Amino acid sequence: MTLRERLFHAALFELLAIIFSVIGLMLLTEHSVSSLSGSMIAVAFIAMVWNMAFNAAFDRLVPGKRENRGWLLRIGHVAAFEGGLLLFTVPVMAWILQVSLWQAFILDIGVTLFITLYALIFNYCYDHSRAYLIRKGHYQPVTAY
């Protein structure tokens, strides 16, 4: 994927993730919508930067057509991505929500479990939609950067 497509992929993923996460946390916690939105926007920004770096490295380590990746590889990809992301996001959530690191970890684990399932579904749909558009001639991918 090109840098432009990586940015589109990451931005679309994070926008939907923010919306779904804030709604879920709003229903499950007593935090205000504004603090939840602020924490999820910060987490999404961190995740977007991590997404760009992690996926560029992953695509170099696992070349080939993305739509041909099996479920086991997809699960490993998401687990490695989300595990690395926790290292960056727990302190941020603790600071914004004014909770302990343990409480932030528990909240972040809940978000991570949801996002893990969401990421599997989103990336499967994205990869197959992209492949379909390429096959139909509606999209011409440029050689990756």
Distance between the amino and carboxyl termini: 8 Å
Please tell me the overall pLDDT: 87
**Main beta-sheet strand count, sense and barrel state:** none
DSSP helix fraction: over 70%
Order of helices and strands: HHHH
How many β-strand runs? 0
Number of helices: 4
Which stretches are poorly predicted, pLDDT < 50 over at least 5 residues? none
Q: How big a fraction of the residues is strand?
A: under 5%
From the alpha carbons, calculate the radius of gyration and give it in angstroms: 16 Å
Structural domain tally = 1
Shape: elongated
Strand pairing plus helix content: what structural class? mainly alpha
What does this structure look like?
InterPro entries: BTP_bacteria, PACE. It comes from Photobacterium ganghwense. This protein has 145 residues and is mostly helical. The protein has one domain. Helices cover 81% and strands 0% of the residues. The protein is built from four helices and no strands. The radius of gyration is 16 Å and the shape is elongated.
